[in-house]
Amino acid sequence: MLKVGVLGAGHLGKIHLKLLQQSTKYDLIGFYDPVKENAQKVSEEFGYTSFETVSELIDTADVVDIVTPTLSHFDCAKEAIIAGKHVFIEKPITNTLEEAEALRTLVSQHHVKGQVGHVERFNPAFTAVNETIDNPMFIECHRLAEFNPRGTDVPVVLDLMIHDIDIILSVVKSKVKSVHASGVSVISETPDIANARIEFENGCVANLTASRISLKNMRKTRFFQKDAYISVDFLDKKSEVVRMKDVPQNPDKFAMILQNAEGVKKQIYFENPEVEMNNAILDELNTFADAIENDSKPKVTLGDGTRALRVAHQIIDCFK
């Protein structure tokens, strides 16, 4: 089993601690949190070992799970990588692109592995249809959340929209051609609601909306491709595939058939793929352990995290 330590014991850090303790692939050695009162509380309440310094935890671990505020991701990851430790970094990978590129170089130099916590890749509603998504040409994303002060230290693009940016980049096999966006600061000092249009060299267009000041929560993405429409509800863990196929010679009398202006007839088929429920955070942590043990490529590489961050900053730059 891999010895793993967690940096950061805030809301998400405590979730990571709980799941790592449950995992059969890791041996949880403990955590470090700079706020002594919080560290003592977490240690006393859950029984986790609290380390006195970041360096002490890194020295003891094989894998360092970084769940600290984004501004400290780079320094924590750099120290761990130089010490020869594998790193799991919560999204976004770092605060700046320069930091992200530096981590990619360090991981290569020190022959360790890194993974970024883009957890929606492991959402069962997405994994149920991932292989069905084939060359989508229009994608529409809505990620809406009720206001929560936690996370408002960064723009909504880095807080929420980056989830959808990563999903889009994982399915569109083409380079980004252009980015257009607008954002509005309503409550926070940084934009709370944003809309972005990403155009790819192959002609695909993605339209993303993210808000953290909505009256309801929503996390839906729709993929449109030749002869198919795929809907993914990341929040309610549901998927639907609507296919258009040539009408059979003897269609069922209840079949839904459409005819276009050219007279071509298509039959509509509705599919609801089986969604196998899981804990996406536990899955992403366990697949990272598998990548280390098998010396294979992590599911979400530091390169993936860097590409998502690059597009996120292109969107943010449009606000200026």
Kindly list the characteristics that best describe this protein:
2 domains; Dihydrodipicolinate Reductase, domain 2; Rossmann fold; 5-stranded parallel beta sheet; 9 helices; single chain; 14 strands; alpha/beta; GFO_IDH_MocA-like_dom; 320 residues
Describe this structure in words.
The chain is α/β, with parallel strands linked by helices and 320 residues long. It folds into two domains: 2-112, NAD(P)-binding Rossmann-like Domain (Rossmann fold, 3-Layer(aba) Sandwich); 121-275 and 311-317, 2-Layer Sandwich (Dihydrodipicolinate Reductase, domain 2). Helices cover 33% and strands 28% of the residues. It contains nine helices and 14 strands. The protein has helices at residues 11-22, 36-46, 54-60, 73-82, 97-110, 124-127, 156-171, 280-294, 302-317, and strands spanning 2-7, 26-32, 63-66, 86-90, 114-117, 138-144, 176-184, 193-200, 205-211, 218-225, 228-233, 238-246, 256-259, 265-271. The chain has a nine-stranded mixed sheet with strand order 7-8-9-6-10-11-12-14-13. Strand 3 (63-66), helix 4 (73-82) and strand 4 (86-90) form a beta-alpha-beta unit. Helix 4 packs parallel to helix 5, helix 5 runs antiparallel to helix 9 and helix 7 (156-171) packs across helix 9 (302-317). The longest helix has 16 residues, at 156-171. It is globular, with a radius of gyration of 22 Å. The N and C termini lie far apart (48 Å). The relative contact order is 0.16.
